[in-house]
Amino acid sequence: MGRSPCCAKEGLNRGAWTAAEDKILTDYIKIHGEGKWRHLPKRAGLKRCGKSCRLRWLNYLRPDIKRGNISRDEEDLIIRLHNLLGNKWSLIAGRLPGRTDNEIKNYWNTNMGKKLQNGNKELGSSSSLAGQDSDPDPDPEPGLKPPQNTTTSGPCLIRTKATRCTKVILNQELQPLMAASHSSTHNNNDNHIKIEAPSPFMDSEGVTNNNVLDFMVDDFEIDDNVFSDLMNMKVPSCFENEVIAMEAAADNSSGDQQGCYHLCPHPISNNETCFINNFSDDSILHSSEVFQSMSALMENELDWL
DNA sequence: AATGAACTCAACCGCTCGGAA
DNA sequence: ATTCCGAGCGGTTGAGTTCAT
């Protein structure tokens, strides 16, 4: 059985809203409040679909809508948030007061899509993961620039609704590092984060990788650099029941075993990952501490929500 | 000035999710 | 457990506007 349509399409106005319609809708919501969108048109005397009313109100008529050009700061934030969240426009909009998901989506598709395309041409000529030192662009897009200082932690600016991370995917290049630092001591700490591979993972060369690690992280050594990197990168307070990808990648151009790790909510759909920082081959990725620190960070987000 | 191309963004559409019954 | 419904999300469309020739 198919679901019933949100409204009868016959006899309804479509297309651009008139000033009169706007006034009717605004007046109605001022009196009756938001919600009950399906019944709103009839009660308000509008020949519009309820969904259309809702959209018009949320994207245009709300009093707290901020109109005008996206500022440089806002653009910076949008880029960073998009790196972390992907096309989660409503989440991104939630971090930009007065901006709507539709506006940000449009802005991204028109402005940022082009900018990033141009940026990727430059980035593509060198290692996008480990070659930032040779980046010829003195002022790349802020969201693409990895942190220069990995020891100074600023306030965590990027926050999402979710507060807990439960899943982590590692690609194969990271497994030896994990195995090397894995302790045989089992720890039942609740802060553990399960590492699992529920779905294919796109590795650093864009190859789908079904064979990723699947075990519990427990009891690793502490590495302050990793944590400070995460803090410095303004790691999202992560995404409940979503996936964080961590990836190591060799820099073949230099021959160094430099790698990087990055976090992203959807490693498959969002292959433009969030660059956090390099770590050299002699660094040990002390994952447990990273994850536990992330958990603590996420718990702290509760106060903010 | 005319015209076609490119761009912008409000609006629409189909789908999913969560809660209530 | 299942169905229904309201709400919300993200992708897409297309009318209006701006730009280039």
UniProtKB/TrEMBL annotation:
Region (Disordered): 115-157
Keyword NADP applies: no
Comp. bias (Polar residues): 115-131
HTH myb-type domain ranges (all copies): 9-61, 62-116
InterPro entries in UniProt: Homeodomain-like_sf, Myb_dom, Myb_TF_plants, SANT/Myb
Principal location class: nucleus
Coiled coil: none
Myb-like domain ranges (all copies): 9-61, 62-112
GO molecular function per UniProt: DNA binding
One Pfam entry name: Myb_DNA-binding
Localization, UniProt: Nucleus
CC annotations in GO: nucleus
Keywords: DNA-binding, Nucleus, Repeat
PANTHER family, A to Z: TRANSCRIPTION FACTOR MYB8-RELATED-RELATED, TRANSCRIPTION REPRESSOR MYB6-LIKE
Record protein name field: Uncharacterized protein
